[in-house]
Amino acid sequence: MTSDVLEVSGLSLPLKRPGGGRSLRAWDAADELLLEQVYARFTPESCPRVLIVDDQFGALTLGLASFTPVSFADSSSLASALITNTPSGQDVAAPSSWLAPPEGPFDLVVMRIPRQVDYLICVLRWVNGVLDSDGVLIAGGMIKHLPDSSAGVFADLVHTREVCPARKKARVIVAAPGDQTLRNWDDLWKGYLLPDSEQTISAMPNVFARDKLDIGTRLLLPLVKREAAGLPAGARVLDLACGNGVLGLTALAANPELAVTFSDVSSQAVVSARDNVSEAFPGAEVAFHHNDCIPEDAGRFELVLLNPPFHEGGVVGDHIALRLFRQVARHLEPSGRMLMVGNRHLGYHRSLRRFFSTVRQLDADPKFVVFEAGNQEAGRS
């Protein structure tokens, strides 16, 4: 867990990044510039209702605590970070998400600019619907992470009042709300037809591979069908990092009597999986979790399905997968197995053996490898 202190606008905020390596801070220059801009322009008395959108690890939520903000984020990592970083004796409300978005109007919206352009469009349209007509949007991000078309998106959707000079490789934009909202946007949901099926799987903008089946998942699907079909009725299955729910849906299609749990760090993914399952299997025994981990009280599973993310906030590597492997090892039944697909270059065949005594390669292509892992043993850090 990486710890550092953010010094800005007279504040001193000790912040930790849960799960981060030694070089990963819990804040960056964009957080710093956003806080500076807010404190230079507003006081808590001048902004009765403040909304923070997609804070990462609590720098904005805790840095603006005097404004008593409402925090709204797609990622459940923020909730975990706030539990870690909120000072003792200070009350900070749990962040809301796309599962139950907050209602406006807000006087000020402070927003991290996302890396993905469709999600940026989605968030700006949503902000237009909750920001007061006289309200102010202050949005910022690291320049290297801004979508290439972000300037055009801001020009199309909001009324830019000021583009602040770039500093420390970060940029902040000050804007007034525009007229276009989610209600008149046809691309909020995109999807594709599941192979060998008549089912269309749809997803919201911040969901991995929302408009086409990714090739890694395609390699895994036949093995999911085979494994799920052989499980007894009521067997517990976990679709971990579920995205649009394609793996869990495939398991249910092969065996509708399974009890399937869908879990993802992204609330838009959970909403998408929930809607897809409701459409295809309205009577199925299912559960949905918005979480960046497997809760300790989740129980054990006969089968875990996983296509692990390999990037987080611009950091690429196997750190997310390793965390998930460790958790899966604790939550598999003694006879249970995990089926996973991963990028060949990340060498999961080695890391899996740190957490599982039995690891088998089931399939592969030039880019991806499918593994089965089980017979858990305590992982070594």
From TrEMBL:
Gene Ontology cellular component annotations, sorted alphabetically: cytoplasm
Pfam families in alphabetical order: MTS, RLMG_N
All residue ranges annotated as the Methyltransferase small domain in the record: 200-371
Domain RlmG N-terminal: 8-177
MF terms in GO: nucleic acid binding; rRNA (guanine-N2-)-methyltransferase activity
Keywords recorded for this protein, A-Z: Cytoplasm, Methyltransferase, rRNA processing, S-adenosyl-L-methionine, Transferase
InterPro entries the UniProt entry points to: DNA_methylase_N6_adenine_CS, RLMG, RlmG_N, RsmC/RlmG, SAM-dependent_MTases_sf, Small_mtfrase_dom
Record protein name field: Class I SAM-dependent methyltransferase
